[in-house]
Amino acid sequence: MDILGIETSCDETAAAVVRDGREVLSSVVYTQIPLHRPYGGVVPEIASRAHVEKITEVVGESLAQAAKVAGREIRPDAVAVTYGPGLSPALIVGLNFAKGLAAALGVPLMAINHLEAHLHTPFLRMAGEGDAPDPAAFTPALGLVVSGGHTNWVDIPEYGKYETIGQTLDDAAGEAFDKAAKLLGLGYPGGPVIDRIAKEYMSAHPSRRDLIPFPKGRPREGVSALAGLPADLCVSFSGLKTALLRHVQREGDGERERIAASYQEAIVQALAERTTTALRRHRYRALILGGGVSLNSRVREELGRVCAREGLPLLTASPKFCGDNGAMIAGLAFYRRNITGEDAMRIDVAPSLEVG
Length: 356
Ligand code: KG4
Ligand code: ZN
What we know:
Layout: E1 2-7, E2 12-19, E3 23-31, H1 33-36, H2 44-70, E4 78-84, H3 88-105, E5 109-113, H4 114-118, E6 125-126, E7 141-146, E8 151-156, E9 163-167, H5 173-183, H6 190-204, H7 238-251, H8 256-281, E10 286-290, H9 297-310, E11 314-315, H10 327-335, H11 341-346
Parallel strand pairs: 1-4, 3-6, 4-5, 7-10, 10-11
Antiparallel strand pairs: 1-2, 2-3, 7-8, 8-9
Helix pairs in contact: 2-3, 5-6, 5-7, 5-8, 6-8, 8-9
Bound molecules: 5'-O-[(R)-(carboxyoxy)(hydroxy)phosphoryl]adenosine (KG4) and zinc ion.
Zinc ion binds at residues 114, 118, 147, 291, 324.
C-alpha cells in the first residue's frame, strides 16, 4: 500500500510516499528556516504563506521521485496529513490541500498526529537501503519525543496506542536550545549550533567538572500536579533559562563554548534522568526516540548509555527523518487508521493536539 504523506505543521513543507508503512519511496522537504531566521523564530503568517506557495511543487516532486524509484507512475492508495499539533495557519494549508487531493484522486484521507508520527521515524528506511525494524517487535515501548515544540514521554503498550506519562511543564527541549542560542547570539535554530560548539568544547575539556552547574530541569515542588502527571516524569526548563540569563548578566558571554556545553549537559541530564525513571517503572522492550532534538549528539550518546544500562535497545531515526518530514506521516498512517475517510474529510486542524 502506497500512502502519500503531507506535513505543514510548522516551518517545513514536506511530502513523501511510503510503501507499507516503512519503505520510503520519496521524501521531499522544503525548509523555510532562512525565511524565519531574521526574526529568530517561526512567524506563523510567513510560514502559512510559504506553505501555500510551495505545497503543489513539493507534493508533485514527491510523486515524481517515488515514480522513478518504483519504475511506474504512483497513484497513492491514500493521502495522509498532519492535523495537529502545530501552528494553525500552517496546518490549514496542508490539511485543506490533502482534502482536495484525496477527493480528486478518489482515495481515503487519513488525519495524523504529528507527535505520534515523530515516534514512527526509527521505523522508516529509504527504498533500497535495507529493511526497517518491525515496530510490533518492540512493544511495549517507551517513546520520547523531543522537538522544538514538545518534550513528551509516551507509553506505547502496543503499536499505534499512545499515552503521555511525562512531559515538559513549560519550554520544550528544542525551544530551550533555541532560546539559549538567541541569548548567546548564536543564531536560529539554536540546537545544531549549540551541539557543534559544545562538542568542540568537550573535546578540548573532557572533564565534566569544568562545566557550569546549571539546574537539571526538575520541576518546582507541587507544580507538576497541574499537568496531572508525576513530578519525577516531568521536566521544567524555565529555571534553566533563568539561570543562563543570570550567568550571562553576571559574567558576560565571553565563554560561549563553555556556557553552551554546560547548558546542553543540563538538558541532556534532565532527559536521561526522567527516561531512566520511566524505564524502571514498567517493563519496556525498547526506547523509541523522535523529534528534531534527537539529532543532538549528546542526547543520543547519553540515552544510548541509559538504554545499555537498562538492557534494552535505543531506536533512533536516520538524520534525514529526525526533523519534520512527510514520511513519518505516511508511515504512521499505515499503522494508525483512527481518523479516516469521511471523519478525516470533516476534521478541523488541532493546534494543541495531544498524544493519544
Ligand atoms: O522536530 P523538529 O524539526 O520540529 C518540531 O516539530 O518542533 O524540531 C526542531 C527543533 C529545533 O528547536 C532545533 O533547535 C532542534 O530541533 N534541533 C536540535 C538539533 N538539531 C535540531 N537540538 C539540539 N541539537 C541538535 N543537533
Ligand atoms: Zn516536529
